[in-house]
């Protein structure tokens, strides 16, 4: 099994309907993540690769002023609960937590052990 994490950057995420779709789609595909709405918009999700790929496809199908995958990482795991627990960085229920500021999102990702991933994503390394 392949475990994937991805970071998107948007010109903005404002529309309530799009914000709801970001959340609902993550829940349906059993992904976890965090979204910073407003200007600019940021979105981080992680989960099993087929689900993340479907999520990327659906997000890009929506009408956005601009959307860019800034970073994507993949890791091979054997699919056991213990190995998934080692690569999964976000805890809690499936879905996307919403935050109001870049600082809050940064703090959440850093607390989850994703400081290096976030730094590379902001530089656009590894998309």
UniProtKB/TrEMBL annotation:
Pfam families: Prp3_C. InterPro entries: Phi-like, Prp3_C, RWDD2A-B_C. Signal peptide: none annotated. Residues 8-75 form the Small nuclear ribonucleoprotein Prp3 C-terminal domain. This is RWD domain containing. It comes from Orbilia brochopaga. The gene is RWDD2B.
